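Input/output pair, single chain:
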Amino acid sequence: MASDNFKPLISIGSRVRKSPYFDSTKRCGAKAFSIYNHMYMPTLYTSVIEEYWSMVNDVVMIDVAVERQIEISGPDAHKLVQFITPRDISNCDMGKCYYVLLTGEDGGIINDAVLLRLGEEQFWISPGDGDVLLWIEGVAINSGMNVKVFEPDVSPLQMGGPKSPHVMHALFGDLAIDLGYYRAVQTEVNGIPLILGRTGWSGELSYELYLQDGSRGNELWDLVEKAGEKYNIKPAAPQLIRSIEGEMLSYASDIGRYDNPYTIGMGRLVNLDRQDDFIGKEALKKINAEGPKRKLVGIEIDGDPITSAPEHLWPVKDSDDVIGHITRCIHSPRLNKNIGYANVPVDYADIGTKISIDSPQGTLGAIVCDKPWFPAEIKIDKDGIV
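Output:
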């Protein structure tokens, strides 16, 4: 393909914000960056395949400071958070984390996020790519609610892989091992303040260190790197292959503004029986009653191995009619198959349905299949931690 030789550079300047770990990522050999939430995000160190095997077999550390936290605090913090998501968070106690969707008035998805409750009147929202801070500020400004909405000094650093509990145990002792899945706790390491969370977009056992002092990012990176030496820790980018295998969806790729929770198979995150109101409630009631018009489905794709993510949304066709698009796809080394996701009308969403794809490699056949291919790993073998 002609585009195989297209290898553009990215200009590094002061206009785009740098992570507190930026110097460390350069030292560790980051070869490529993208812009995510108005920040530089490393997207390659060695190769997608090599970083994949490091995550699946050992442990990787990933600069995810681009998950720019949004703090909602004040007497009405819980009320505002409940208003912007269709998920019922009434039982979200201190230290609990929830995966949530943020919906617009039309029921479409503004973004997806991890919600952390850190205090009686303090929440953090950890969003995907998009100006969620501005959206929440807009919701709050005329709401009459007594809240503060701002970006705190917080920069997550993620560990992912089967040996990540070993690295975290070396730094935090039993606290890291006893911490429940999707729980978070305030702690420190070497005097560096942070939130330790059992969260992370990897599909493998994951932790995130929510650094609370941006001036100490490289110091924290060094501590994690040293603690992970005996476990073969490597720097890596957010993992394309493993995220597709594990159905870790990506906003602006697998999820779009005009998709709704039912389109992407996350109706479980919508509670229409709530007595209180939330943005998009009436629209989601209607969509639920009528049924979604489209579905995000897993697919297996014929042809030679797909070695990089598509540069655009490949059209999905039935004969000559464009009926949808591929969101993300890649070759899985463990499956020895090309796998991915397609957004198609519900009539094409049944397992076994055959579709065709317009790709730079020509027309490719594909079939709708079950997903995820490898479920997310969440259980720690505590007996094996030393």
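The two ends are 49 Å apart (CA to CA). The chain has three domains: 14-68+153-243, 70-150, 293-374.
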